[in-house]
Amino acid sequence: MSSLRVCCGLLLLSVARLSIAEPGNAPALPAYRLQPGDVVDVSVWKETDLQKEVLVRPDGGLSFPLAGEVDARGKSVEEIRAILAERLQKYIPNPVVTVALKQIGGNHVYVLGRVVHAGEFPFANPLDVMQAISLAGGTTPYAALNDIVILRRQNGRQQLFSFRYSDVAHGHDLRQNIVLESGDTVVVP
């Protein structure tokens, strides 16, 4: 009976060691990049007049008192904090600026065609093609699974990426399961 307890104890210890994540081994997620429609909460310590919610406008800019206009599109919250702190130094010695993402309103992908629920889907974490199709409820029985395309507009030019659902579902050619960017459209014919 005691050898059974020792085995169970060793097993529990092994499971406990596996479940404890060491900070150095966990892959770091990329910083969230602001998009038009996002709302950030900005505050400057000991400056009650400099505490406000700020919307990232459709042009990607935001306005903050004394700091003026800031191009926020594609920047992280930390980058915006640094820009505001630098600009506010003219008026406030050593400003302590805090910027927090309050509402995500800018990251959306679109899934249309032969899926159960076509539409616009917001996302906060990285999202790949298979996940987007899943958000749309999956494909319908008559979907052309190997003719799916992803449309992306960059710098005014349209890009097209092919996606063969069957390959990815069977673990082949996984590189085509790309991480989607805000504004991407997944078309399931």
Q: Please tell me the CATH architecture of the largest domain by its name.
A: Roll
Average pLDDT for all residues: 86
- CATH class designation of the largest domain: Alpha Beta
Pattern of helices and strands = HEEEEHEEEHEEHE
**Record field, number of beta strands:** 10
Envelope shape: elongated
Strand order of the largest sheet: 7-6-10-8-9
Name the structural class: alpha+beta
CATH topology of the largest domain: Outer membrane lipoprotein wza fold like
Which strand-content bin applies to the residues? 25-35%
State the share of residues found in helices, binned by percent.
10-25%
**Number of domain units:** 2
Count, helices: 4
- Cα-atom Rg, whole angstroms? 23 Å
- Any idea what the CATH superfamily of the largest domain is called? Outer membrane lipoprotein wza domain like
Q: Distance N terminus to C terminus? A: 63 Å
